[in-house]
Sequence to fold (153 residues):
Amino acid sequence: MRNAWRLFWIFSFLAYAVHFAYAWFGVFGGQLETARLHHELFKVPEDPTVLDLVIAHQGSFVAYSNFVITGLWCLDVVLAWFAGGIRGRAHSVVVALHILTWLYVLVSFVIASIIFSKNNTILVMGWVMVGVVALSVLIRLFGGRPRAATTEP
Fold:
């Protein structure tokens, strides 16, 4: 079950990373030239960057919150794969980081599903992402510890 949780969590992150990259480089990056020509309409500086466009469309709080969640979730995925043997105080820190990340992702998805639901597709996809995160938390909490592998001839 632990491996199922880990795989679920990493593929959820990868789906989010594709969404994040498409928004930044596809949607906002695709508008960059138009924003440079008509910066007053986009409410950005004369020579805007993608970050300027993201902040103009999403606001500073949402834009920087997306940076935090992306970095935190990426770190959590790395720790899920490589911090299994940590014991003591460091283990407590890793567990606390996992819990913080799960809560942050879950709350972020719920809020985004409510605020940015411009159509039913966005609303359904947002709730699916919320369900994926919630399910991964349940698997993690109730999946138990992995059993040691036995080597039989």
